[in-house]
Amino acid sequence: MTARRPTRQQLAVAESLARSDDFVSAQVLHARLRESGDAVGLATVYRALQSMAEAGAVDVLRTEDGEAVYRSCSGSHHHHLVCRTCGRAVEVEGPAVERWTERVAAEHGFSDVTHTLEITGLCSACAAAGA
To answer: What is 76-131's CATH superfamily?
Structure first.
C-alpha cells in the first residue's frame, strides 16, 4: 500500500507548526491558521497533529492542566527542558538517562523499552521577571 499524500490542510498545519519555536496547543495553532487566512477546521488540526505525532514528526507534551501541546521534532531522540511559565522548550540529550534506562530495563528483564523525559522549571527570562 502506498502512503497517502498530505492534504492542503495537513500541509498548512505542519508549516504553521514548523514556524513556531515553542510548544503550542491545537487551539492556538488553529487560531494562527485562521488569522493567516487558511480555512482549516479545528477537528482537522487535531487529526493532523495526531497523525504527525504517531509518525514521530512532532513532539507532544502535556501541560500541568493536561492539555497536549505540540512542536516540530528534530528527529533524533531527545528530552526537553520546559519553562512552566512561558512554555519555552529546549531539546537536550541525556546520555546518562539512556544508560540508566537500559540498565534498569535489563535488571528487570525488560527489552525494547522507550521513554520520555520532561524537565520543568523557569527559563532565565521568566526567572528574571520574577515569575
So the answer is: Ferric-uptake regulator, C-terminal dimerisarion domain (3.30.1490.190)
